[in-house]
Specification:
This protein is of the alpha/beta class. β7 (181-185) and β8 (188-192) form a beta hairpin. The chain starts with a helix and ends with a strand. The chain has eight helices and eight strands. It has helices at 2-22, 32-48, 78-86, 91-99, 109-117, 123-129, 146-156, 167-174; strands spanning 60-61, 64-65, 72-76, 103-108, 135-137, 160-163, 181-185, 188-192.
């Protein structure tokens, strides 16, 4: 007896569920009017959305950077100094041999802090960077990550050449138009993307 009653309630529940399932709500998306209203609402939201376009630097004529000219201002990265010392290249003389013009080597506070963090093994590089021949740029941001500092500077001001041997930093610099990259190869300085 218990089983039959249970089966009857199950059958009744299935019938009730099927009856409810057949009714379509007027707010259901399958109704044509609701689909049209949803499309119109989406179009209105897209029209209201503000589109921003990054301003192009006035220093660029297409990809040609008009602000670059002698004396060249070269931003130096930490590993560039280390590679120059390892290859026994005088930084200022090597830059002049590469560019055939006067060069002003520039070091940011982040690069100096990064060299100091590396310890006593890099004290020669630290002493070289503190030389008065190198111009020092103060940093106003928090932290001492030199890569972000250099990228921020070259996006703001396109008057620099960046000297680095770091692959990741080179990849990031190549995305910024009009900024040449100097690096060490075959025991001398080489430059790419120079106009």
């Amino acid at each position: 007896m218990g089983r039959s009653k249970n089966r009857k309630t199950q059958k009744f529940a299935k019938q009730k569920f099927a009856a409810v399932k057949k009714i379509i709500s007027p707010k259901d998306m399958r109704v044509k009017k609701n689909q049209v209203d949803a499309e119109k609402k989406k179009e209105r939201e897209d029209a209201r959305q503000v589109r921003n376009v990054n301003p192009v630097s006035s220093a660029l004529f297409f990809k040609y950077n008009t602000q670059l000219g002698p004396p060249y201002r070269v931003l130096i990265d930490t590993n560039f100094v280390n590679f120059a010392i390892r290859n026994k290249i005088d930084i200022v003389k090597g830059m002049m041999d590469c560019l055939y013009a006067k060069c002003i080597p520039i070091v940011t506070d982040c690069v100096v802090a990064e060299l100091e963090k590396m310890g006593s093994q890099y004290r020669v590089a630290c002493r070289l960077v503190r030389d008065p021949a190198f111009e020092r740029l103060p940093c106003m941001h928090k932290g001492t990550y030199a890569d972000d500092c250099l990228i921020e500077r070259i996006t703001r001001h396109k008057c620099y050449i960046v000297a680095t041997c770091d692959r990741d930093l080179k990849r990031r610099i190549r995305k910024v138009p009009g900024v040449p990259i100097m690096y060490v190869s075959q025991h001398r300085f080489t430059i790419e993307r120079m106009p």
